[in-house]
Specification:
The chain is mainly alpha-helical. The protein is built from 15 helices and two strands. It has a domain of about 190 residues: MetI-like (MetI-like fold, Orthogonal Bundle). Strands 1-2 form a two-stranded antiparallel ribbon. This is Sugar ABC transporter permease.
Length: about 300
């Protein structure tokens, strides 16, 4: 009997201990990481790696074909000593200031179109149509509009104005063309935000006597804060990375008077095969965008808290 008891105890001791079930929190964390892993891998390959490689390339001289030559800060020193860089930076600031007219204009259109009347969907689609047009098409349309020989602007004013041929007017003419599709984009963001506003809050405010500007400023706009954040951030990014309309309408001219940082970067890389110098311009543009977006996110977090 004692031998059988001893054998049983030995068998039990030799069996592997049963695994304890993983806590629910750890299982959820592991599942979340597994779901995030493909997205993180793609983000690393297509976003993080290009950023790091561009920063590394900006410290080299390279024409895209021969071997890279380490240059240190030479590209940045040349960039900050270039007159074209400051012209491009000034034009980017002009784009930034004037492009910020798009969110309030989009808000005004959204408030006007946020009605339940017959045919309003057709009107909304007509206002939104410029946004779905490619930038090349918009550039061609406004190039014909500004043409001093047969353009519509000549018929309106009565005489030809060389908007795209005058260094004083060309940047403002291109910005006006760029605002044509940007305003409908902001309008759609605000229309989406208006559909999510609680109507009971609006009715309660009206019962308290809020009307017109007071209702808009104290009741509607605070509920549109996420839409405003998206409209402002995307508008600023669009102003800083403006390229397609400049390429189509002026090619950075006349005499580099309408160039911006994005087009200056393209010009140096494609026309002059200065990949390292172009990467330095890209790094400066990325730093400007990063500082602005971080500032906006900090403001948003503070206002929400």
């Amino acid at each position: 009997m004692s031998i059988s008891v001893t054998q049983r105890s030995l068998r039990r001791a030799s069996r592997p201990a049963a695994k304890r079930p993983m806590p629910l929190g750890q299982r959820r964390t592991r599942a979340a990481l597994l779901f995030l892993l493909p997205g993180l891998a793609l983000f690393s390959v297509f976003v993080i790696y290009p950023i790091v490689s561009s920063i590394w390339l900006s410290f080299h001289h390279w024409d895209g074909m021969t071997a890279k030559t380490f240059a240190g800060l030479a590209n940045y020193r040349e960039l900050f000593a270039s007159d074209t860089f400051y012209v491009a930076l000034k034009n980017n600031l002009i784009w930034l200031v004037l492009f910020l007219l798009a969110p309030p204009a989009g808000l005004a259109l959204a408030l006007y179109l946020n009605q339940n009347v017959f045919g309003i969907r057709l009107v909304k689609s007509l206002f939104f149509a410029p946004f779905v047009l490619p930038g090349v098409v918009v550039g061609l349309v406004f190039s014909w509009f500004y043409d001093p020989t047969f353009g519509l602007l000549k018929l309106i004013v009565g005489h030809g104005i060389p908007v795209l041929g005058d260094p004083h007017y060309v940047t403002y003419g291109i910005i006006f063309a760029a605002l044509w599709p940007q305003i409908p984009f902001c309008m759609i963001l605000y229309l989406t935000g208006l559909t999510g506003i609680n109507p009971e809050i609006i009715e309660a405010a009206r019962m308290e006597g809020a009307r017109g500007t007071k209702l808009l400023w104290h009741v509607i706009l605070p509920q549109l804060r996420p839409a405003t954040f998206m409209a402002v951030v995307l508008t600023v990014i669009g102003a800083l990375r403006s390229f397609d309309l400049i390429s189509v309408m002026s090619g950075g001219g006349p005499f580099d008077s309408s160039t911006v940082l994005a087009y200056f970067m393209y010009d140096q890389a494609i026309k002059y095969y200065r990949e390292g110098y172009s990467a330095a311009i890209a790094v400066v543009l990325f730093a400007i965008m990063l500082v602005y977006i971080a500032w906006q996110l900090r403001r948003l977090v503070r206002s929400e808290s």
